[in-house]
Amino acid sequence: MTEKPAETSTTIHPLLARRWSPRAFADRAIDDGDLLAMLEAARWAPSSRNEQPWRFIVARRHADPQLFARIRDCLAEGNRVWAADAAVLLVAVSSTRFAYKDRPNGHAGHDVGQAMALLTVEAMARELWVHQMGGFDRDCVRVAFGVPEGFEPITAAAIGHMGDPAALPSPLDEREAAPRSRRPLSESVFGGMWGEAAPLLTEQGPPRR
What we know:
The chain is α+β, with helices and mostly antiparallel strands. The chain has helices spanning 14-18, 32-43, 65-72, 77-83, 108-125, 138-145, 172-177, 199-204, and strands spanning 54-60, 88-95, 129-133, 151-160.
């Protein structure tokens, strides 16, 4: 298994530090109980007015290869190369309007993202890995699965047990081994005017625990 723990500036939970998005997946099914637990974790994500705007289209490769292929065929070509080996393909779909007074829900995408984050953490707790993708054809998903008006496909994800990076074609094998990086907190966390690092960071550095 390829481990690429984050080099964090302060201690965070090991599940979060270990999380990354592999492309190499093993030819191994996911236990149905594990998959249900991931979806249950997503179900309990917070959302504005408790609208729960998320919907999930889920296909298990070993249980229903035809359904799996319908999602795979909607992925960008570069993603199909490796995602075809995952145990599960998933598309997260967002309701775009509040049921309350039928008005636009500007928080829906954020809330679906929170649901996907909880799904991913639950997966990590079960030694499963999630690679989310923006590279997919939303219109293809709408047609293939009859997604109605008022719902928007947000992200696709491949889920499974980690495989051997050496099995990936070049240059994906090199990308799999590349180190992870993030910009420093001082460039993302502001205090006062935009772009000014928060005093928490400049005065004493990030807190440790």
